[in-house]
Description:
Layout: H1 11-18, H2 29-38, H3 47-60, H4 66-76, H5 83-86, H6 90-107, H7 123-135, H8 137-141, H9 152-166, H10 168-181, H11 188-200
Amino acid sequence: MTVHRxxxxxxxxxxxxxxxGPWSHERTVDETIADAAVGHADEPPGAAASAILKDAVRLxxxxxxxxVIATVWTxxxxxxxxxxxxxxxxxxxxxxxxAVCSGQMRxxxxxxxxxxxxxxxxxxxxxxxxxxxxxxxxALAAKAATFHGHEADDVVRGxxxxxxxxxxDLGLRLLLRVLNACRVPISDAQYARYEALGEAFGYGRFxxxxxxxxxxx
Length: 217
């Protein structure tokens, strides 16, 4: 399992935070993507851009329906950049993210834009993440009013498809972002499970606690 060098969230899940509603229109879309691609001070140059790029490429090249991509993005970003509202195709959006991150990597003197291979995840890790997503479904359904017009079942299905068809790591990270964006309360037992899974995926020490609005009970 690859260990990620940052202590915090990374990749496309981190990018959703930069568009969380109400998204600041004082920055252009490309400038906002570029801000996220700069990364944290403890990351090597180009690492944050590379992580976002890899997630976006894998999702864009996956078999997922485009509307699933749009649903997961919109809910994870708290509706701050609702693709349906702006009339943007989900895959076109991911291609734009890739283009900006590729430019950021070149500016950081990264050796080259990396080739991105499909993830070959262990069946067990896929099963565990899908189980965690399904276990969160009732709490998510209770917050359906915060899904910006999307159905709770569609959000859960989308997260499951990301975990099974793209990458369980990305599926878990997007679940955490959805829980954050929708302010879904979780128990201490759930929080501990997320931390244990995060450790197995090589997340940094603050990754799960960085999900700001989780209210444990």
